[in-house]
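User: Here's a chain of 411 residues. Predict its fold as tokens.
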Amino acid sequence: MLELLVCSLVTVLPDYLYRRFAQGKRLGQEITFFTVWYELRWGITLCAVLTVSLITTVFFFHPSTKHVASYFRTVTILPETPGRVTEVAVVNNQSVEAGDLLFRLDDSSQAAAFETAKARIAEVDASLSVAEIDLEAAEALIDQVEASLEQSRDDLARNVELRERGSSAVRETEIERLENLVDRKEGELDAAEAQKAAVEENINVLIPAQKASAEAALEQAQAELDKTVVVAGVSGRVEQFSLQVGDYINPVLRPAGILVPTEFVERERFAAGFGQLTATVIKPGMYAELGCLSKPFTIIPMVVVGIQDVIPSGQMRPTDQLRDPQDQQRPGTMTVFLEPVYPGTTEDIPPGSKCIANAYTNNHDILHHEELSTGRWLFLHMVDTVGLVHALILRLQMLLLPVQTLVFTGH
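Assistant: Prediction complete.
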């Protein structure tokens, strides 16, 4: 409407003044409701053409969008294991710090597994003490066998020496008995040393491996026990939290609530969805203006800090069906990131607020180029000038927004 009024001032009004003062035609006489379409045909036609051209120029070089918001992420409150709630430590809308207890699950089976793992470690430690005693016994047995073997060897050597001297006191059967005794003692020594080696192997290899396995089982049991205690991973506010003692929680089917972090909310950055026709116009560094429902009657100067290089409507995931482009419902928008020119001006806008934004083409640097032609110089001046129309429209929208929202929609 504003564009139509502006264009009529330079088209319809001059045509009417010419008809009135040059041709003498008057309203209500020659110019009536039925003849105005013929008498002012040149002005009306030029007004329609100029209005369409102006609207196209304004919305192309100074794009606007109603799809602007400050996005924030949420953290789903879920346990790592299913279970029944035995304790609830927070209430809905409560602020929590990272590491604060949220709720506990029934840990009877996990606690039993933990105690079993602890008992297994105590059992392994006891077996180590027994093995050390067995090692001492094996060493004592070796000493005993070595002493007996030494005595048998001495007796055999003495009898052999007497036989060589031709003594009649030595019998051949006695020498054979002593030789057999030495062989038996040597076998007993080998058996005692093998027994000692087996005990040492248990102490150095088997028992440490058993203890390591028991400690790993204890750590696993401790990890499973810790899963029954659900704490806040980040600082934030608990929302949609209606958990009660006795509820059964499943990490797949039923979450406990939502945690809205405080340190990861980007209050200074807004994401705006502009039409694809503006892809060649919007550039980083371009100035913009923002108005939000949560802060009426206020226009905030913004600047374009980034443009997403893909359009979300083209996203796809592998499925068992080929994608048909004609099934795409919406063309998708360009995601443009805006930040305030003056830091702190958007701090009081709640994240997630619905906003509208205008972006303005600025040709100030190009207009000072020496090789710029006159026609292009006039065109760029016109482009920068008509941006005022869009700025006025945004201010009218923000002025009428409370009335439109509260009176006509009732929200």
